[in-house]
Design brief:
three-stranded antiparallel beta sheet, globular, seven-stranded parallel beta sheet, 10 strands, alpha/beta, 9 helices, about 270 residues, TIM Barrel
Length: about 270
């Protein structure tokens, strides 16, 4: 599974400055990468408009932030969403960013489970391993760790965290974990324990997104959590920018394309 990562600038230099970091079917424009559609908190009407736009574009996996509004309000919004978009139409992923009250987290998860949630990221703040382990054991919604991974910098602690908490999923963000080598170490340890994993971009420009998409494609993980299912990662954040570096990476519906007919358009470095 290892893709012989390394410094991306040096990889690019070795490849003649083509910005092809890994030669894969993706960078040869022979296949595309599916990504989930990210929905930001909004009014009920705004949420439904966002989701309708994602569905129209072809997204079948939607990720929503939760924990910012009172629980009763968020339950109302999720009910509205599920009335219009049942589980057979969209897979729903939620991300709490550690916002749940630890004392009420399990009860909150039990109420959210009514909406057929595929998994929920980081229900409580990082650093509470025993409580996170309890939630992973008892939650009716599979739990994914995200922020919990960031401070871990060595193999022993990484293994201890996974063995203690035993999450069902990991959300792997190379930009926050120390790069591709660290991300691959998390993936290897997750697979050894039967834990699902997903790669996510953060808020990189197209330069960083180019590297993360190529790396994800190079992992060779087209399979998802069931035979015949694609693994749908979270790599569509480049579309959040009002300006960006033009690049061959573009979003076509719900899929990322490496379009070899599109050129990079980077500013020239200033003269010394």
């Amino acid at each position: 599974m290892a893709v012989k990562q390394g410094n991306t600038a040096l990889r690019d230099l070795a490849g003649g400055g083509s910005r092809i970091l890994w030669d894969t079917p993706f960078t040869r424009s022979e296949c595309t990468l599916p990504t989930h559609g990210l929905i930001w908190m909004d009014s009920p009407e705004g949420l439904l408009r966002q989701i309708e736009a994602k569905i129209t574009a072809g997204f079948s996996v939607i990720k929503m932030k939760v924990g910012a509004l009172p629980l009763a309000r968020e339950l109302e919004l999720l009910a509205l969403i599920r009335e219009s978009y049942p589980p057979a139409q969209i897979e729903l992923r939620l991300d709490a960013n550690g916002a749940f009250d630890p004392a009420a987290a399990l009860a909150t998860l039990e109420q959210l489970a009514f909406f057929d949630v595929a998994f929920l990221e980081q229900p409580i703040a990082a650093g509470h391993w025993p409580l996170s382990a309890e939630l992973c054991r008892h939650s009716p919604i599979p739990i994914a760790l995200d922020e919990e991974l960031i401070p871990v910098a060595d193999a022993e602690t990484r293994g201890a965290l996974l063995d203690t908490i035993r999450p069902q999923h990991l959300v792997v963000k190379p930009a926050l974990l120390g790069g591709f080598a660290a991300a691959e170490a998390w993936i290897a340890d997750a697979e050894a324990r039967g834990i699902q994993w997903w790669t996510n971009s953060l808020l990189e420009s197209n330069i960083g997104l180019n590297a993360i998409c190529q790396w994800t494609a190079a992992l060779g993980e087209s399979g998802g959590d069931a035979p015949g299912r694609e693994r749908v990662h979270g790599l569509g954040t480049g579309g959040l920018f009002t300006n960006n570096f033009p690049s061959p990476i573009r979003l076509a519906g719900s899929r990322l394309v490496y379009d070899r007919d599109l050129a990079w358009n980077l500013p020239s470095p200033p003269h010394a």
